[in-house]
Design a protein that fits this description.
Elements lengths: L27 E4 L2 E4 L2 E2 H8 L3 E5 H17 L3 E7 L6 H9 L3 E4 L2 H9 L7 E3 L6 H9 L4 E4 L2 H14 L3 E8 L21 E2 H9 L6 E7 L10 H21 L5 E3 L31 H9 L8 E4 L3 H4 L3 E12 L4 E5 L8 H5 L5 E3 L8 E7 L8 E9 L6 E5 L19 E6 L2 E6 L4 H5 L1
Parallel strand pairs: 4-20, 5-6, 5-13, 6-7, 7-8, 8-9, 9-10, 9-11, 11-12, 12-13, 15-17
Antiparallel strand pairs: 1-2, 2-3, 4-14, 14-15, 14-19, 16-19, 17-18, 20-21
Bound molecules: ligand LLP.
Length: 451
């Protein structure tokens, strides 16, 4: 299909009533022992496009977006939903998300440009991150984005200088650090004072009270306490402390905050996503009961009762993670007295999460062979590091060379965190819509990366 032709998976579907955020429902399922994504066999995708390949379900993506939008509409308060591009910035995926009217949360000049090119309106884009360069600040100002999120006093001064020099009004949010424990992996916990993010409330108060730059307009507050948050309490706690801060600014200084962005972080279940009686039981250790979207919005809205504030949530993972499986082929197996290994053609350069955070991703075969035994297997990649694994000591249906496997929930921080480590070309990305599949990013070639 040529680039200019309309893409069917981009067409928004009309909202359908969803009972919840669709937990444990998935567009990946078994029929006649074959794993499907929508109506396409995973084994067929592997044959057609090769492996490793990220395979996305367009309808799951739409369900996630609609689930969020309808929960946001139903909640009290005025909510906007933005998408955090850092989770996945494939341009075709972005076009689908933008077509539903979501805003965009970006963290670099590159993400800002791809958001604009993918159809997110400039006035829906916020620019987060603790270290924006002068060049990135200029880019944000020149494109009249919704707000630059300020993470330090020095950054505010730099923005004020650049705005004055260009005579461009800078709309800014101040990112506050509410010192709330998100109860997630320490590497993705961002709302504690020992984390590098935001400005402590005590320091934010004098900064905001004294914010008097001719070309800076302070319109909002921002806070993001972490990612893969599987309890609603930390969200409620952060929202409550920010709502109190909004009231304090109003009563003590007469400063009216009209926009509050509560960041992203809604967790998803990574266990038991695809089930079949023949597969080893994929037990949920601790994250099967993540809050539904409705609970998140209720808890986060409640503290703002009585305030005239537009609220924004900016999830990445909850929109894209469970839409995708990383499909890989077993190259070799080997066994010693300590372990059984399956060496597959996907590695930590394709999916870094298990190596970096010890993250769990369910792994299932593309075809169930009922004669296979359950075997405790370590699924590892070809990279020359012991930390290169997709699963360690996992009970799986035993694997053999040439088997195709699917590593589930790989859509968020999967391709986005991939690299050319060991000079390995990045994987291809394919989207499935109904019974059709289409490549949305070509596999890199060795020549591409040797340039
Ligand atoms: N907003 C801000 C300011 C953020 O820093 C993030 C994520 C988000 C929104 C989106 O968070 P989400 O809804 O996706 O949880 N690589 C890690 C996750 C890093 C998250 C960084 N910030 C992982 O693979 O788990």
């Amino acid at each position: 299909m040529g680039r200019s032709e309309s893409r069917r998976y981009c067409t928004p579907i009309s909202p359908s009533p969803l009972s919840s955020n669709g937990l444990n429902q998935t567009q990946f399922y078994y029929r006649n022992d074959e794993l499907y994504c929508e109506k396409v066999r995973i084994a067929e995708v592997a044959e057609e496009f090769g492996t490793p390949v990220f395979v996305y379900s367009a309808s799951r993506l739409k369900e996630n977006i609609l689930g969020l939008l309808s929960a946001a509409d139903a909640a009290s308060g005025r909510w906007r939903v933005s998408y955090a591009l850092k989770a996945n910035s494939n341009p075709e995926i972005l076009k689908v998300i933008a077509s539903f009217g979501l805003g965009a949360s970006v963290v670099s000049g590159g993400e800002l440009l791809i958001a604009l090119r993918s159809g997110f309106p400039a006035d829906s884009i916020t620019f987060d991150g603790p270290g924006k360069t002068e060049q990135e600040i200029r880019l944000a100002l020149d494109n009249n984005i919704k707000a630059i999120v300020v993470e330090s006093e020095q950054e505010l001064e730099t923005i004020a200088d650049i705005a004055a020099e260009r005579e461009k009004l800078a709309r800014v949010y101040i990112r506050v650090n509410p010192h709330v424990d998100a109860k997630t992996h320490p590497y993705i916990s961002t709302g504690l004072l020992e984390n590098k993010f935001g400005i402590a409330l005590e320091e934010a108060e004098p900064l905001i009270a004294g914010c008097n730059y001719p070309w800076v307009k302070l319109v909002g507050l921002h806070s993001h306490i972490g990612s893969q948050i599987t309890e609603s309490e930390p969200f409620a706690e952060a929202a409550s402390s920010i709502a109190d801060f909004v009231r304090l600014l109003q009563s003590k200084y007469g400063i009216v905050i009209s926009e509050v962005d509560l960041g992203g972080g809604i967790g998803i279940p990574y266990h038991g996503v695809v089930r079949d009686a023949r597969l080893p039981v994929d037990t949920a250790s601790g994250n099967s009961d993540v809050p539904e979207f409705a609970t998140y919005f209720e808890k986060a809205s409640a503290p703002f009762a009585g305030l005239q504030v537009e609220l924004t949530t900016e999830p990445g993972r909850a929109i894209i993670a469970d839409t995708c499986a990383l499909v890989s082929t077993v190259l070799y197996t080997k066994k010693n007295s300590a372990r059984t290994f399956a060496i597959v053609d996907a590695a930590m350069n394709d999916l870094l999460r298990p190596s970096l955070y010890g993250s769990y991703h369910q792994i299932v075969p593309a075809t169930i062979d009922p004669t296979r035994q359950h075997t405790v297997t370590s699924v590892v990649g070809p990279i020359c590091e012991t930390g290169d694994f997709l699963a360690l000591d996992r009970e799986l249906l035993s694997l053999r060379p040439k088997d195709t496997i699917a590593v589930l929930c790989a859509g968020a921080y999967g391709y986005a965190l991939s690299s050319n480590y060991n000079l390995r070309p990045r994987a291809a990305e394919v989207i499935v819509f109904g019974s059709e599949s289409e490549i949305i990013r070509d596999r890199e070639t060795i020549e591409d990366i040797l340039q």
